[in-house]
Write a structure and sequence with these properties.
alpha/beta; TIM Barrel; two-stranded antiparallel ribbon
Length: 343
Amino acid sequence: MTYTPAADRYSKMTYRRCGNSGLKLPAVSFGLWHNFGGATAHDTKREMCQTAFDHGITHFDLANNYGPPAGSAEEAFGEILNTDFKGYRDELIISSKAGYHMWDGPYGEMGSRKYLISSCDQSLKRMGVDYVDIFYSHRFDPDTPLEETMGALDHIVRSGRALYVGISSYNSERTREAAAILKDLGTPCLIHQPSYNMLNRWVERDGLKDTLNELGVGSIAFTPLAQGLLTKKYLGGIPEGSRATQDSSLDAGAITDEMIASLKGLNDIAEARGQTLAQMAIAWVLRDEGITTALIGASKASQIVDCAGAVSNLDFTEKELSEIDKFAGDKGLNLWATSSEDV
């Protein structure tokens, strides 16, 4: 059946300028990190992407190793581009990354010029596109000169493989260094992708949020829902089949009685605001425009609809923020495996 996007899709979403660039991103972006591999039915993937676009989510975020197996998320999205989104490429922002292990041998991960450019070429082939809008260095590589990594990103733009470049999970100091190198090369750092949510505020402790604002670099916060922890899913404990019961980056050991009590307190605040817990968690990340967009994942279309609804109320009173801090604060949790070694 031919897919026709919702005519009112752009009225449903808020768009924010990404740093000092001319590019606007939706306040909520859709990431294909989980639930986009071989274990998920292709029709489910199609439905999620269609639902996202119907709600004004124009940004689809991938990486070379997303799946599993690695590469399968890009392949699946490439099929959707060729069917459902054919003719809408110029309305989409597509991003990919390289940094984590992708293939065997010494050239299959980290930040060398060899790996980044080869990986970008592979990603383009898997998705069947001529270019991506944003290409990232997925993590800082302590064993490769930063000049080499940033030089590879510059080449990727100048060769037409990407329109913009970014970095992910670099701390504040490394971000300054990377941005300075890219500026000298003439290819500005468009965006930074850090983990950030109510329970994990390292970007505030590290000063990264302030650094990005000062440098005019945009930001896209991944795990705004703390791998599903900041949803109603865990209010009654750990349900069967949830991410915490699987071999994933969400540590079940972090879901203590104290944590569940905190989640219930946060849920009460959300209900008083007329939001779901997920909506409030996303709104909190976006509350001061220090973050350009929140990057969500999903296992079904209804979760995307819920998350997109966060943009209807992004304002918080000082009392609400204070109450949230009582239950969440900065617990310093590292519930995922994709934080930088520098953090």
